[in-house]
Design brief:
By secondary structure, this protein is of the alpha+beta class. About 50% of the residues lie in helices and about 20% in strands.
Length: about 110
């Protein structure tokens, strides 16, 4: 085989291994912990932001140690907080005046 073909096989193997590793990681204990952390963060920040009327910077102080990996975004028009752990988990919590904050169904 030519050198070019070996290079393509090598890159293809790396891509396949990456997808397989990502699928394993998502179903592992790390994936479950990430899912729990994203849901917890979305609900806590939504309650802080829309029930407690605090700003996002103030709400970030409510987290437990180890939650630094969770990222969040705020959609004030929809009163929605989305929290995610990159490549592993994502949850959204929405505020409804009559019910408070609730995690959206997936």
């Amino acid at each position: 085989m030519k050198a070019r073909n070996w290079w393509l096989i090598f890159v293809g193997g790396i891509v396949i291994a990456g997808f397989g590793g990502g699928a394993w990681l998502k179903r592992s204990n790390y994936g479950r912990q990430a899912d729990l952390a994203a849901g917890y963060a979305a609900h806590v920040v939504c309650s802080c932001r829309y029930v407690g009327n605090r700003d996002m910077k103030s709400c970030a102080t409510d987290f437990e140690p180890g939650m630094e990996i969770v990222r969040m975004s705020d959609d004030p028009a929809a009163r929605r907080i989305t929290a995610w752990v990159p490549l592993l988990a994502k949850h959204t919590a929405t505020y409804a005046p009559e019910y408070g904050c609730a995690l959206d169904r997936r």
